[in-house]
Write a structure and sequence with these properties.
Length: about 90
């Protein structure tokens, strides 16, 4: 196994991690920004006001994109298992 193969696998893993975390992070960012904007406009500084909507929105994002996330993870894992013979020099 050469250096290029290791770097390629690492890059694919990082891209997969970014793709899988994007829906949750973007949802939390958008909801957090909206809640903080609302809090600054109304001057209500309640901790639960920012946490509960974000938790609900992230849960919904996971519910909506969960199937896609699992399919991407399974596809990546399948590709890695298919590469094993060529990485060991057998194919």
């Amino acid at each position: 196994m050469d250096t290029n193969a290791v770097l390629d696998i690492g890059l694919q893993g990082l891209i997969l991690a970014a793709k899988l975390s994007a829906p949750v992070l973007v949802t939390a960012l958008v909801v957090g920004f909206a809640i903080s904007l609302l809090q600054s406009i109304t001057q209500i500084q309640e901790v639960t006001l920012s946490f509960v909507p974000k938790a609900i929105a992230v849960s919904l994002a996971l519910l909506v994109s969960g199937h896609w996330m699992i399919a991407e993870s399974v596809s990546f894992t399948r590709q890695m298992f298919e590469k094993i013979p060529s990485l060991l020099g057998g194919g």
